[in-house]
Amino acid sequence: MSQEGNGPTNPSDAPALRTVPALTGSQTSEAKYRRLIDGARLGIVQTTPEGLILTANPAFARILGYESTEELIRTAPSMVSHYADVADREKLVARLEQQGSVTDYELLVRRKLGDLTWVSIDLQRVSYEQGATLYEGTLVDIAGRKRTEAAVQEADGDRDEIGQRRIDHEQ
Known about the structure:
The protein is α+β, with helices and mostly antiparallel strands and about 170 residues long. Helices cover about 40% and strands about 25% of the residues. It starts with about 30 loop residues before the first helix and ends with a helix.
C-alpha cells in the first residue's frame, strides 16, 4: 500500500512503471521490426546498385503511386524507371559511390501513372560480409513543400514587381 502523498510503494502499482512483456512466439524481433518498418510514414527501400528493388515498405510504394509493395516490385522492379531524368540517377549513384551516403537529395520521380512528384532521398551504400553491396535508405514526399516554396517565390516576385512599379510611377 502507499502512504498518502508518498506515491506507490510497490512499482507494479504505478501504471507508468510497468514493464512491457517480453516478446514471445510470433512476436520475435524480426516481426517487431517488420511492423515498425511497415508502419513508417516515410518510404524505406533497399536496392542493388543497378536499381533493382529488393525490399520496400508500403509507404515507399504509396509515394510512387502503387497500392502495395508487391504491386511495385511486380510491375516496376527497377528504380531506374522511376527517375524523371536518368541524369539525376547517374549523379546520385556517382555521389553514393564517392561519398558512401547521400542526404536530402531532392529530385523529381515518376509515379505509377506517369505523373511527377518531388522527393527527398537519404541513401547509404552498405557492403555486406557476403560481398554484396546494396543501397539502403528513405524517401520522403516533399511535393507539398515544393508547392509552398514556389508560391512564396511567386509572391516575392509579385511584391518586387509592385515595388518597381511604385518607383517607376514616382519618377
